[in-house]
Design brief:
Oligomer: single chain
CATH architecture of the largest domain: 3-Layer(aba) Sandwich
Number of strands: 15
Number of domains: 2
CATH class of the largest domain: Alpha Beta
Strand content: 5-15%
Structural class: alpha/beta
Bound molecules: pyridoxal-5'-phosphate
CATH superfamily of the largest domain: Type I PLP-dependent aspartate aminotransferase-like (Major domain)
Distance between the termini: 53 Å
Strand order of the largest sheet: 4-10-9-8-7-5-6
Largest sheet: 7 strands, mixed
Length: 466
């Protein structure tokens, strides 16, 4: 087909074109093709516009990634200049280029502790695969090749490639594309509201962390390479751990000489009010992955930050690490990520999230939705939050299985100019970090209305079922 001017096409024509050839990720493509995808046309700041001209407040920053907001033309300028100078060259065969070298230094300037060594990849999933291969190879270099089991958590998300799927704890993903990669074990997630029973938050946090120790002893400390976890579980529904959780995890990893890996793909670059989520919880990982906020989503790029202990083992080992990607350190992506981090520093965005807009957002969320008849519990930190929707606040009982309250709420939001994501019966917010107070006010004004509409919808469904 010849080049199309999309703005000249009507919505239905684009939907038909999309349905004809485009298979969507994490989607029932057959059902979507019948209904037609919503076509997003342009964006500015925290707003999107669809092809029908609707203005939508993006409460999810795209897919958690558009930290610095849409419409940053300076990134386009940087990308254009880099594309004209050197659009591509690899970093495999003893070559490098300034954007990759500069970005590595810039990332190292914001990572905590000795996470000073940077390995580039193209996506969060590739960063996780890099970590899986790297920690196993690390123990081989240390002449302990039997130390190769990775421990992760139920309901964790670590990407959708083979390694990340196996490492993650998403049942729906494990059920497809079997068999999974071997050498992975899962422990419980620190989801106090949903799974804490009668325990206090603190006691439950300790209990969940101690599940790591139990698992280590079960499989044998000599067989465990690393524990991998998101500081705050994102795609799992924004599960904020109790304060007692991370220090105990840290203690256990040290006790059994197990590498601690933080998957910072969502938490990294300011989301929780610090550069990285591990800082919010006071732990120092041996390695960490980062992706989404790294370039504010403007171009695909990811990285693994590696501490001295692991990096020096590779550096002193005098052999190749047989791993990498065609687009590792891609110069255009690297140049844009560099500009993104520099802009974050210039605009003091981390401080803004920690001391200004983050607390404002969390307070407003509590004030607006905390007492809503649908709200069971709110988890939140910085500029990320998850709201558990329940049928009965006292018993925490959910809705009958045929009432998908999350999807009902998500649809009301979309119809009313707000993007909120549903993970099961949890509603998720993760807006661009640059959101203003007035925009937060607007977000919750809309969210309140949509919660009311959702409440009315589910009451109608419940009444009809009787
Ligand atoms: C999104 C995500 C990934 C995967 O990143 P992709 O770029 O989609 O491959 C990995 N880990 C976490 C915590 C994520 O949120």
């Amino acid at each position: 087909m010849s080049q199309q001017n999309t703005s000249a096409m009507d919505t239905q024509a684009i939907q038909t074109l999309d349905a004809a050839h485009h298979m969507h990720p994490f989607t029932n493509t057959g059902a979507l093709n019948k209904k037609g995808a919503r076509i997003i046309e342009k964006a500015e700041g925290v707003y999107l516009w669809d092809s029908e001209g609707n203005k939508i407040l993006d409460g999810m920053a795209g897919l958690w990634c558009v930290a610095m907001g849409y419409g940053r033309t300076e990134f386009a300028d940087v990308a254009k200049a880099q594309m004209n100078e050197l659009p591509y060259y690899n970093t495999f065969f003893q070559t490098s280029h300034l954007p990759a070298a500069e970005l590595a230094k810039e990332i190292a300037s914001v990572t905590p502790g000795d996470l000073n060594h940077i390995f580039f990849a193209g996506s969060g999933s590739e960063a996780i695969d890099t970590i899986i291969r790297m920690v196993r190879q690390y123990w081989c270099i240390k002449k302990k090749p039997y130390k190769n089991i990775l421990i992760s958590r139920e309901n964790a998300y670590h990407g959708s490639n083979i390694g990340g799927t196996a490492l993650g704890g998403m049942g729906g993903m494990h059920a497809q594309g079997m068999p999974m990669m071997p050498g992975v074990e899962h422990i419980c997630q620190p989801y106090w509201y949903g799974e804490g029973g009668d325990l206090s938050e603190e006691a439950f946090g300790l209990k969940c962390a101690q599940a790591l120790e139990t698992k280590i002893l079960e499989v044998g400390p000599d067989n465990v390479a690393a524990f991998v976890a998101e500081p705050v579980q994102g795609a799992g529904g924004v599960i904020v751990p109790p304060d007692s959780y991370w220090p105990e995890i840290d203690r256990i990893c040290k006790k059994y000489d197990i590498l601690l890996v933080c998957d910072e793909v969502i938490c990294g670059f300011g989301r929780t009010g610090n550069w990285f989520g591990c800082e919010t919880y006071g732990v120092q990982p041996d390695l960490m992955s980062m992706a989404k906020g790294l370039s504010s989503g403007y171009l695909p790029i990811s990285a693994v930050a590696i501490g001295d202990r692991v990096a020096n083992a590779f550096i002193e080992h005098d052999d190749d690490f047989n791993h990498g990607f065609t687009y590792s350190g891609h110069p255009v992506s690297a140049a844009v990520a560099l500009a993104n981090i520099q802009l974050m520093k210039k605009e003091n965005i981390i401080d803004y999230v920690k001391n200004d807009i983050g607390p404002y957002f969390q307070q407003k969320l509590q004030d607006t939705l905390g007492d809503h008849p649908l709200t069971g519990h709110i988890d939140g930190v910085g500029l990320v939050a998850g709201i558990a929707l329940v049928h009965n606040k006292d018993t925490k009982e959910g809705f009958p299985e045929d009432i998908d309250v999350g999807l009902i709420c998500r649809d009301h939001c979309f119809e009313n100019g707000l993007i909120m994501r549903a993970t099961g019966s949890r509603m998720i917010l993760s807006p661009p970090l640059v959101i203003s107070r007035a925009e937060v006010d607007e977000l919750f004004e809309k969210a309140k209305k949509c919660f009311d509409l959702t409440h009315a919808s589910v009451n109608t469904l419940l009444a009809n079922a009787e």
